[in-house]
Design goal:
Blueprint: E1 12-14, E2 20-22, H1 26-44, H2 50-71, H3 81-95, E3 103-104, H4 110-136, H5 140-163, E4 169-170
Antiparallel strand pairs: 1-2, 3-4
């Protein structure tokens, strides 16, 4: 199989459904943003402590399933309640280590800065998926997943800063 197919040279690409869509379509915008998030998570996992790196890698794998769901217009769905509950369990755990009290100044450590970039990209992906849910009726689990993921990334960044004594809250 060749990486270069030339099928997208006219600004059109294919979905899992076989449909052809513009590269700037809402599905491709959402998936492109999730792909960007996946890449930044791949970088971040080299800066965070071991268990967090394992969590980020599992999330990366789940993001592939999320993108497949969007590219199939909801016909393929592997990310659901179980994956969302997993994120919520991690959120609860990290909330036990950091209690949100105020806004924070992102980037007090390299690791937390990497996670904050991922958090911001996850929020952008969430906004793009919200359009799919509201305008086209698919991607609801993806929307919830991305919302929880951004919360988790925020908490992971704060826990790292707390452990390194570098948390900077803005009041």
């Amino acid at each position: 199989m060749s990486v270069t197919t030339k099928t997208g040279d006219k600004g059109i690409t294919g979905l899992f459904t076989g449909d052809r869509v513009a590269k700037f379509s809402p599905v491709m915008e959402a998936n492109g943003t999730i792909d960007e998030l996946d890449s930044f998570l791949g970088e971040a996992k080299h800066y965070v402590p071991g268990e967090m790196a394992e969590i980020l890698e599992k999330i990366q794998l789940q993001l592939y399933d999320l993108m497949a769901e969007l590219a199939s217009k909801g016909k393929y769905s592997k990310v659901g309640e179980e994956e969302i509950r997993w994120l919520e369990g991690l959120i609860t755990r990290y909330e036990g280590e950091y209690k949100f009290r105020a806004f924070v100044l992102p980037g007090s450590t390299i690791a937390s800065a990497k996670l904050d970039i991922c958090r911001a990209i996850a929020r952008r992906a969430e906004r793009k998926v919200a359009k799919l849910v509201l305008d086209y009726g698919f991607g609801k689990n993806a929307l919830v997943y991305l919302n929880r993921l951004s919360d988790l990334l925020f908490l992971m960044a704060r826990v790292i800063e707390l452990k390194e004594g570098k948390l900077r809250e803005v009041r």
